[in-house]
Every structure is written in structure tokens, then in C-alpha cells.
Amino acid sequence: MSLPVEPMPRPRRPLPPPAHPSGARAPRIPERRLPRHVAIIMDGNGRWAASHGAARTRGHRGGSRATVDVVDGAVEIGLAQLSLYAFSTENWARPAAEVDGIMLLLHEVLRDNIERWHEQGIRVRWSGRRTRAAPALRAELEAAEDLTRHNDVLTVAVCFDYGSRTELLDAVRRMAVDVATGRVDPAALVEQDLAGYLYQPDMAEIDLLVRTGGEQRISNFQLWQAAYAELVFEDTLWPEFDRRHLWRAMQTYTVRQRRFGGTAEVMPGGTAAS
Ligand code: IPE
Ligand code: IPE
Ligand code: MG
């Protein structure tokens, strides 16, 4: 059993993120054009490894480096919320050695970066089923959540053992209990009530969904939250992705016109564009 970790007060001024080694700086995007919540399907590690004649785990290691850079780049550009698809409910079908390798790498990423992320004001959350992760990873993820609970510069949702259908099933189960015990009147339910049972009920809907690695599919990711997301598909394999690709996707987003089913442009959060 791991001991509860006290949320540590972080310094009043968050540490700035380290710059990209190329010296590239974040483009300036006017605040009203910034997506609030970007989600990334980090795909292509296996193909990257194959193209280098290496084992798939080498690809996942390269993917970890990309993830760390993208988190810094998200802080640098002023993003508020970032969801990262790290491991799906379907990925358990992979060979055990690959699954164990992915869990070990995620554990290492957290161990090596969590203190710096905390100083940068990053809040880490875990979206997914909590019962099947290796105990050491579960402890590391939950400690990261506890440590960073009060941070507000950037929220990073680590989607591990995440599947949208499982998330919806878990939500419906909990809602059914509330109906059965009389806490909820089924006739009075509205969409927002169902959203309240999801893993991260207080996170914004996804404005921009990026998938790397060239495939153009959703793979059971955030089906509810991405209902009106703008989609950007990148051919770059995840180990070759870095913050500059994230910034480019965000710039692409700024010129999209979102209408949410109406005829006029609507900004995220529901306000009409001026
Ligand atoms: C994404 O890369 C990482 C996970 C799904 C964990 P893949 O391992 O799916 O890489 P490809 O799609 O086989 O290239
Ligand atoms: C989606 O990628 C899951 C993650 C990136 C964690 P997959 O590689 O598992 O998706 P499919 O199998 O190509 O749809
Ligand atoms: Mg894949």
C-alpha cells in the first residue's frame, strides 16, 4: 500500500518549461482562438521501430521522449488541457512483453518528470480503468495526481487503460445505481448529467483531436467528449513528433470554422464569434 502523498505547495511563480533544443518558440495565438482542450492519439511507435530495425519497445521509448517534449510545448503555448492516449483497453491484446514495457516506460516518464512538471504548475490526472495497471504504475500515477492536485497552469490527462466504451459503460453503471436508489430521476436527465459520470467530468469538451502515424480513425478514444472536435491527422510517427508539430496543429485549428450544427461560427464554450 502506498502512503498518501500530501499535495505540495508549488512555488508562486511556476517554472517556465525548457525550450525546444532547436530554439523554436511557440507562435502567438490570440487567446480567443486557442483550443481549450487538445487530445492526442499518440500512434506510430511500432512502425517507427520497424523502420529502424528495432524492437517495438525501442519505438515506445522514442514515444516517451516525444510525450515529454509535447507537454513542455503545451505549457509554452498556453494550452489549458491536454489528453494523451497512452494505452487503450484494446492494447492488452498485445504481447505481454510489449505491454509490460509500455507500463515500465510510463512509470519512468512520471518518475523522471513529475517534480519538474509540478514546479511548472502542471496537474496530472489519470483517465481509465484503475484495476489492471501494474501496481507500481498505479501507485506512481495516483501519487502524481495527489501531488499536483492544486496546479492550474496545464492539466494533462494520461489516458491509460482507457476506452471510451468502457468509460461510458462505467458511467451508465453508476448512473443506474443512482436511479435504483432514487437519487436520480431518469425522466429528468439531460446530456450534461451523463457527462458528469465520465472519468473527468470537469474537463472541457475536446476542441482539437490530433492523431499521428497516418491512420485516420478514432480507435475508441473520447467518443463523447470529441463529438464536435476538429480533427487533424499527421503522418509523422509519434517518436518523431515534437512540440513544433503540436503548435502547427493548433495553428491549423485557429483557421477552422466551428459551427456546432448552426450556420454561424461559434467559439468554444458556446459564444458567437465576433
Ligand atoms: C502507439 O504506437 C502506442 C500505443 C498504442 C501504446 P503503436 O504501438 O500502436 O505503433 P504502430 O501503430 O504499431 O506503429
Ligand atoms: C490507439 O492506437 C491507442 C493509443 C494510441 C494508445 P492503436 O495503435 O492501438 O489503434 P489501432 O489498433 O491502430 O486502431
Ligand atoms: Mg498503432
UniProtKB/TrEMBL annotation:
<keyword id="KW-0808">Transferase</keyword>
<feature type="binding site">
    <location>
        <position position="56"/>
    </location>
    <ligand>
        <name>substrate</name>
    </ligand>
</feature>
<comment type="subunit">
    <text>Homodimer.</text>
</comment>
<feature type="binding site">
    <location>
        <position position="211"/>
    </location>
    <ligand>
        <name>substrate</name>
    </ligand>
</feature>
<dbReference type="Pfam" id="PF01255">
    <property type="entry name" value="Prenyltransf"/>
</dbReference>
<dbReference type="GO" id="GO:0000287">
    <property type="term" value="F:magnesium ion binding"/>
</dbReference>
<feature type="binding site">
    <location>
        <position position="94"/>
    </location>
    <ligand>
        <name>substrate</name>
    </ligand>
</feature>
<feature type="binding site">
    <location>
        <begin position="217"/>
        <end position="219"/>
    </location>
    <ligand>
        <name>substrate</name>
    </ligand>
</feature>
<dbReference type="InterPro" id="IPR001441">
    <property type="entry name" value="UPP_synth-like"/>
</dbReference>
<feature type="binding site">
    <location>
        <position position="92"/>
    </location>
    <ligand>
        <name>substrate</name>
    </ligand>
</feature>
<keyword id="KW-0460">Magnesium</keyword>
<dbReference type="GO" id="GO:0005886">
    <property type="term" value="C:plasma membrane"/>
</dbReference>
<feature type="binding site">
    <location>
        <position position="43"/>
    </location>
    <ligand>
        <name>Mg(2+)</name>
    </ligand>
</feature>
<dbReference type="GO" id="GO:0030145">
    <property type="term" value="F:manganese ion binding"/>
</dbReference>
<dbReference type="GO" id="GO:0008834">
    <property type="term" value="F:ditrans,polycis-undecaprenyl-diphosphate synthase [(2E,6E)-farnesyl-diphosphate specific] activity"/>
</dbReference>
<dbReference type="GO" id="GO:0033850">
    <property type="term" value="F:Z-farnesyl diphosphate synthase activity"/>
</dbReference>
<protein>
    <recommendedName>
        <fullName>Isoprenyl transferase</fullName>
        <ecNumber>2.5.1.-</ecNumber>
    </recommendedName>
</protein>
<feature type="active site">
    <location>
        <position position="43"/>
    </location>
</feature>
<feature type="region of interest" description="Disordered">
    <location>
        <begin position="1"/>
        <end position="30"/>
    </location>
</feature>
<feature type="binding site">
    <location>
        <position position="48"/>
    </location>
    <ligand>
        <name>substrate</name>
    </ligand>
</feature>
<feature type="binding site">
    <location>
        <position position="230"/>
    </location>
    <ligand>
        <name>Mg(2+)</name>
    </ligand>
</feature>
<feature type="binding site">
    <location>
        <begin position="44"/>
        <end position="47"/>
    </location>
    <ligand>
        <name>substrate</name>
    </ligand>
</feature>
<comment type="similarity">
    <text>Belongs to the UPP synthase family.</text>
</comment>
<feature type="binding site">
    <location>
        <begin position="88"/>
        <end position="90"/>
    </location>
    <ligand>
        <name>substrate</name>
    </ligand>
</feature>
<feature type="binding site">
    <location>
        <position position="60"/>
    </location>
    <ligand>
        <name>substrate</name>
    </ligand>
</feature>
<feature type="active site" description="Proton acceptor">
    <location>
        <position position="91"/>
    </location>
</feature>
<comment type="function">
    <text>Catalyzes the condensation of isopentenyl diphosphate (IPP) with allylic pyrophosphates generating different type of terpenoids.</text>
</comment>
<dbReference type="GO" id="GO:0005829">
    <property type="term" value="C:cytosol"/>
</dbReference>
<keyword id="KW-0479">Metal-binding</keyword>
<dbReference type="GO" id="GO:0016094">
    <property type="term" value="P:polyprenol biosynthetic process"/>
</dbReference>
<dbReference type="InterPro" id="IPR036424">
    <property type="entry name" value="UPP_synth-like_sf"/>
</dbReference>
